[in-house]
């Protein structure tokens, strides 16, 4: 159902879609009352939340075998911007873990600028089901911060444990201020550290690091972006290790603290798109994997 204040607003909408909707003309004052915006545009709609498995998306000739995994993104503006970037970069799908803000929250919808209807979005996924929504084989990379690496420099422990009670890798962020050496172990401090280690803690995997512009998207790829407050989940890092993925770094100028998660996602997604398109367009490459066929 679409409520509008003037016919001019309707003319801005697709006619084929309007034919299937109920149109109701109302006063602009009513729309101002209903809308959360200070200055609404004079049109507002009510609709059922669509099931992504039932949505028919237009043939997307510009899509690439690249998926975005949002790990505990809680800011509506960030998530909406990330969805918009994913659609613009031609991503095949977006997967949201439990803990992410509702993808259909009004602020997310406004920031996404229609991205919800341009690619599949799968919300509230647990990590055990994540791979079911990705092609096989797929390589999973994580956007990571160097803050933990800085603290871990000089440590030569062969095994580092993490509390079972922790569901996040607090030492993992979403973007780096500078690259670090490969194969650095990370540890997450917990107040019950000693007792947890005695019970047999969970060891974080070894995941090599790469600069964002180095070669990392050479096959069907998924990129994990963690929330700015809680960082990446341990499960995300484990999937990166399992699929031979990397920790991706975006170097920034000195004395700059960080980028936000949406900016990091934008840089990495378009870099991944560039690398995949270059690979696909290579004349010598005449084969196409089954996983890539799923994305075409």
Automatic annotation (TrEMBL):
Keywords: Methyltransferase, Transferase. Residues 66-143, 210-270 form the tRNA/rRNA methyltransferase SpoU type domain. InterPro entries: Alpha/beta_knot_MTases (IPR029028), rRNA_Methyltransferase (IPR051259), SpoU_MeTrfase (IPR001537), tRNA_m1G_MTases_N (IPR029026). GO terms for biological process: methylation; RNA processing. It comes from Perca flavescens. GO terms for molecular function: RNA binding; RNA methyltransferase activity. This is tRNA/rRNA methyltransferase SpoU type domain-containing protein. CDD domains: SpoU-like_RNMTL1 (cd18106).
């Amino acid at each position: 159902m679409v409520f509008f204040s003037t016919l001019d607003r309707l003319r801005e909408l697709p006619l084929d879609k309007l034919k299937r909707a109920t149109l109701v003309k109302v006063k602009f004052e009513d729309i101002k009352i209903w809308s959360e915006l200070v200055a609404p545009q004079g049109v507002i709609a009510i609709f059922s939340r669509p099931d992504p498995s039932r949505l028919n998306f237009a043939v997307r000739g510009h899509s690439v075998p690249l998926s975005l995994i949002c790990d505990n993104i809680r800011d509506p503006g960030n998530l909406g911007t990330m969805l918009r970037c994913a659609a613009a970069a031609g991503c095949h799908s977006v997967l949201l873990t439990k803990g992410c803000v509702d993808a259909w929250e009004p602020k997310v919808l406004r920031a996404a600028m229609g991205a919800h209807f341009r690619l599949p979005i799968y919300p509230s996924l647990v990590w055990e089901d994540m791979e079911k929504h990705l092609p096989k084989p797929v390589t999973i990379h994580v956007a990571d911060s160097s803050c933990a690496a800085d603290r871990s420099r000089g440590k030569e422990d062969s095994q580092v444990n993490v509390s079972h009670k922790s569901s996040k890798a607090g030492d993992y962020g979403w973007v780096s201020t500078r690259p670090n050496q490969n194969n650095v172990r990370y540890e997450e401090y917990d107040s019950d550290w000693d007792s947890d280690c005695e019970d047999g803690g969970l060891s974080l995997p070894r995941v090599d690091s790469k600069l964002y512009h180095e070669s990392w998207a050479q096959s069907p790829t998924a990129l994990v972006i963690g929330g700015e407050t809680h960082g990446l989940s341990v499960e995300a890092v484990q999937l990166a290790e399992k699929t031979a993925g990397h920790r991706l770094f975006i170097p920034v100028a000195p004395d700059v603290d960080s980028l936000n998660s949406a900016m990091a996602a934008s840089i990495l997604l378009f870099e991944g798109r560039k690398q995949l398109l270059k690979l696909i367009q290579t004349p010598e490459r005449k084969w196409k994997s089954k996983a890539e066929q799923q994305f075409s």
